[in-house]
Sequence to fold (265 residues):
Amino acid sequence: MMKPILDAHIHFDLYPSDERERMIASFADEGIQGVITVSNHLPSCKENLRLQQHAPSMIFPAYGYHPEQELPSPQDERELFQWIREHHTGMAAIGEVGLPYYMRKEHESEGRPFELQPYIDLLERFVSLAAELNKPIVLHAVYEDAETVCDLLEKHRIQKAHFHWFKGSSDTLKRLEANGFSISVTPEVVYRDKIREIVRQYPLELLMVETDGPWPFDGPYAGKRTYPCMIRDAISAIAAIQERSLEETTTILYDNTCKFYNLSF
Ligand SMILES: [Zn+2]
Fold:
């Protein structure tokens, strides 16, 4: 029998509440076992916790602070870290955390200075929190930023790191693989050559699939609302690229996600 699907990275709290209800109600019919919902900041963490309490067998929250935004004030950061320490038992991971690639590029293209170091320092505090709480970490570290993030992970001897929607170079990919780090791909693998090339180069045992929903996609998904069922197409694409059967690919991706996030069903 075909294994169900896990969405390894979604912003479930960003869907309107009536839409979430419909999504949760249809998961069983669509063969969706559950989702890892990542948090952008403290109000987002609290909402994701509420969602987990509402559907504890399907919603698995990660708590963090998304890097593509202004830094938190020292007070906000203290509150966030304290809240995570108080709520870490039901937490699947620390995340979404990382480095601000798109924000930095935007500043640079407008000729405005951008100070990256405070973001690196904040990320390092999240990395040591993951080590302290013995939890996996979910990273937004696209392109060359993944190298800086690897330095921090190696320094703190982190073993469970998930680079979501990875788009870096083959050299970076080799470094991630040597560390045993996981990456995930979105439905972009269906229509974007760069992502297909990444899947060709990376071991299936270190891959997961995600939507990053409600983020919208192009190609065959242009104009369509992003839902976890889109992952089926991504899995078929991965199976074809890696020349494996659909059933084996579905099973391996499912097992990878369960193992990485310590989920048992
Ligand atoms: Zn995300």
About this structure: DSSP finds ten helices and eight strands in the chain. The pocket of zinc ion is lined by residues 9, 11, 38, 96, 212 (CB under 6 Å).
